[in-house]
Specification:
Number of strands of chain B: 2
Structural class of chain A: alpha+beta
Oligomer: heterodimer
Number of strands of chain A: 26
Number of helices of chain A: 21
Order of helices and strands of chain B: HHEEHHH
Helix content of chain B: 55-70%
Strand content of chain A: 15-25%
Radius of gyration of chain A: 36 Å
Distance between the termini of chain B: 129 Å
Helix content of chain A: 25-40%
Largest interface: A-B, 17 and 15 residues
Low-confidence stretches of chain B: 139-143, 152-156
Shape of chain A: elongated
Distance between the termini of chain A: 152 Å
Number of domains of chain B: 2
Radius of gyration of chain B: 52 Å
Strand order of the largest sheet of chain B: 1-2
CATH class of the largest domain in chain A: Alpha Beta
CATH architecture of the largest domain in chain A: 3-Layer(aba) Sandwich
Largest sheet of chain B: 2 strands, antiparallel
Shape of chain B: elongated
Amino acid sequence: MNHGQQKLGSNRRAAIAGGVLMGLALAVVVKLVEFQVLKHEYYAERGRRQHLRDVRLPALRGELLARDAYPLAISIRTESAVVNPQQIRDPEFFARVVAPALGKKPEELAGPIAAKKRAGGPGASFYVVARHLTPEQRERLKPLQRTFPIHILPDVRREYPNGVTGAHVVGAIDAEGNGNAGVEQKLNEELKGRDGLMQVLAGSRQDRFLTWTRRDSLPGVNVTLSIDRVIQHDAERFLREGIEQAGAESGTVVVMDPRNGEVLALANYPTFDPRRERPTLEEAAARHSNIAVQIPCEPGSVMKIITVTMGLDTGIFRPDSPIYCENGAFPRPGRRAIHDVHRYGTLDVSGVLIKSSNIGVAKISLAAGPQRLYEYLKKFGIGGRTGIELPAESRGILRPLACRDSRDRNCWTPASHEYIAFGHEVSATALQLARAVAVIANGGLLVQPHLVIAKSRPAPDGREAPLPVEIAPPKRVLRPETAITIRRIMERVVLEGTGRAAAIPGYSAGGKTGSAEIFENGRWLNRHNSSFIGFAPVANPRIVVVVTLNRTPKLGGVSAAPVFRKVAETALRVLHVPMDRPETAPEEQPPDPPKPPSPELLLASAEKPAPPEEPPAAPVLVGPRVPDFRGRPLVAVLREAASLGLPVETLGRGVAREQSPPPGTVLAPGMRVQVRFAWLP
Amino acid sequence: MSGLEALVDWFAAGREAVEESERSLACDARLRALPREEIFLYVKPIDNTQVRCVARRSEWMSGAATAAVFLVAALCIIATIVPSTTVLAISHRIEALNQEKASLVNELRRLRSDEASLRSAERLEQYAGERFIAPPARALVYAPPGKSALASLDAR
């Protein structure tokens, strides 16, 4: 090989080496262009994420307070001990040392930690050794942290100081701190507040940190409920006793202020303990079934109040209008006859409600027609949600009056209004019934039942900033005179009708019993949804109480009425309502439990003469004093009388000139004030 | 002064006498050999007793200016550091107070919860049952005396 050839080969090799180097340099440049130009934002973002992290600053959940400002639910900051099982070499040794410090048995810790250590994977690097450490546990763990990789993390515990009292109202929260029942669930967004955000800038080796707060946490709203703790507790206790005595499966009690719709107590049975983090299956089922607002049932005879009210308010009937009750069996063309439990001849409208005659109210409904009945049901809020601050509220069942077409089965049949008149073919929740009877109790206003009476948010300076609470204003749906008339009739139900067991010593009370036999799987079960709805005192009602016992063999007058009496007595005492009857009045014995109205019994009773009725005992009453109406116009007289609960009979027009009885007279039940009006000369 | 004798002389004869004797003893110049070195130093003591320090005005001004510069610089540094240091200290204090406040608020919440629990209707019923509705012991049940017993008392 000569020199020229060697030089040529050397040049070629140099060219190849240069080309390779150029290629490598080009590749580097291309990669640099990709990093710095084409995907600059992507890699910059990745770099930022390696150094910059967001840390959540949890907001403290708001409090739930009773109306006396005692907490029903309150959050307390605690600490919990956690470990990474993968960092623990010997779980047995760890458990033997750490468990005594936490008051646990070693096997309680060793097993789960060893299992997680064996399992591996992303979920196996975190195990909560103990939640909500006590100060003593914290002190005992401190020296152990030098030996074992135990981390102490901030935690929050939700406390329910009243235990099971008001469980269905207050609700509970799940493991993630979100409400899963009651007000805790319904107002979860407001209660939990807004978490803050802290940013951490870490060094490349995570050895230095710089933190700053991007957004402060916003504490949750404190909510004051209308619940009275004593009334709530007693309502739950009396409900439980009533259910045990009546052999019922479940039940509910609602106590409401008819003037503004504030729910003072809402009790259900079965109930649950909100403090339990891991509820049993039965408790979990009870937690999610708030009977008072979620489960509607046929109201039965309590619906007669609305039918009779419709008859009087429309002017078709007067309280003393006679209605022939067909001696217990009202044959209907082309379908089964309507029966009464007892055989009645002619009753006036008051008597129809007092004796709870199915035939009587069916005839009232027939006279008024389905359109009017439907309108009055809607006026009383049947078939519509009340808007209470509880989750999954049912609207009940009230089928539409008009059918969409000939195939529509979900509408009223030509006979529906006869049966709806006494509480069949319609369903309502206990809360809807409470709202309906509140219309009677407050003089004709439809109120919105509600639990929340105040809201506030804790300010940084320690004060509470009040927040607005939106409550729909009451809506007039009934004339006051009609409401007062029905009130008086309902008082007679308690004094001489089916609700005698509901009479409260020292107070006047009005109400109505209801018993709807359960038809299931094609047969009558001889079990009832028994109920009693009422109010007290009659002149100026302060409470409305609804008691419903499900699947009991006893009727409402025997099973639900005594519960009403006990609950109402407690509520009136707690609310400091002055007595309007002698407290020492002889306690009336509850009536003998009537048997359920089976078809055979009804047929047999149709053959027998009606049993002689005992005359009602004349009660010793202390009624309201009659004011001086003279000189006032008609509207002012009616308004004054409505506020006092006095029945007024007006004669003539103009200004009140004469009245009977005179001012200051104590008006006995059944009496009315007659006011004569005339124009001034 | 070169020794104890001189000190005693100084005490005895006064300062002037001692200085005079020192001047008479001191030689003007001497050759001194450095130990273990072949170097000889010509050493002559200098009498600076008559030297007077005359401070020049410019030097004094220079010194004062230097001191002032240092003072101003120190003040600037202090003015720069002190506010931030104070802010830092106050921040730490505020943070500590905030933590204390949070701790106290948490304690208040816990106490309110305890109070509500103790005053719950269920607990009050339990207390009432334990303390006030306990059945009386049989020996404490009061039985009024019969009519005959009263009559016998009257007779006595």
